[in-house]
Write a structure and sequence with these properties.
The structure holds two protein chains of two kinds.
Chain A lengths: L2 H19 L3 E3 L11 E10 L2 E9 H12 L8 H24 L5 E3 L3 E3 L1 H9 L5 E7 L2 E10 L1
Antiparallel strand pairs in A: 1-6, 2-3, 2-4, 2-5, 3-7, 6-7
Helix pairs in contact in A: 1-3, 2-3
Chain B lengths: L16 E6 L3 H13 L4 E7 L2 H8 L6 E4 L8 H10 L8 E5 L4 H9 L2 E5 L4 H14 L5
Parallel strand pairs in B: 1-2, 1-3, 3-4, 4-5
Helix pairs in contact in B: 1-5, 2-3
Classes of the chains: A alpha+beta, B alpha/beta.
Chain lengths: 152, 143
Amino acid sequence: MDNSQKVALSKVVRDSMEKLAFVFFASDVFREPISFQNVVAAEVSFTGVFSGRLAMVITEPALCELAANMLGIDGEDVERNHLYDALKETVNIICGNWLPIEGGDEAVFHVGTPRVLSPSEAEASLTGQSPSILEKMSVDEEPCDIYFFRSI
Amino acid sequence: MPPEPSFCDGRSESMGMNILIVDDSSVMRTMILKTLRMSGLSLGDVHQASNGVEGLEILSRQWMDLVILDINMPVMNGEDMMIRMRENPETRDIPVIVVSTEGSKTRIENLVKMGATFIRKPFSPEIIRDAVNQRLSTGENHG
């Protein structure tokens, strides 16, 4: 895994989250990847000059804070469908901002519709093959992992 | 869940700007609406749609001063909706701001050629406010 790619992906996540929700993510390289219990996950696939998918695995408290900031409401007022919608939109935005860096801004990609994964689906989908990049991050001491899979 | 648009016939009687927000994400529609409300713009009816088909349906019965449009949506994407708008004499001059994660320079250039202002997600409220002000004040519809 090229470390410069990890750094670049981490920057995309940090910049996107700060602008999207005024939430500050940081790299958290020394911990283990999040276990797939009690997490929320979503992934989005893309095709183009290369294909692949990008996924985010995040704890519910962290997602709740993210969604609340996006909507400008208190965390306890966030409805579950808004939680999932916020996660899908977040994954979509990270992927959309990452692909021009990974593929160049002349490259045309078709980004699919993001989908929420149950914890068991996420574990099966994300551990079945080695990711091209796994970026471990945290927000307010809650972990969040970004998986990027690039295929030919 | 599809949004519940308000139902009005023809031009709004209010002096504010009628704006249509088309995005499949209810969170993103809410964020854009919140930004518009905070911007100090004089808003009339603000309608919401979750795809291009719903957006065109609203445009067929309600005058809009501006459309804020996502690209990647199910049923009908924003690019196709914009092409249909430009083909229809009733809607071809409505200013469009595309707010999308689209990263392809080629695709963005095509949208700008059709007269759209492009804003990349994520956006700051100031960028949306400035783009809306610019489009509404110039009345410039085609690129």
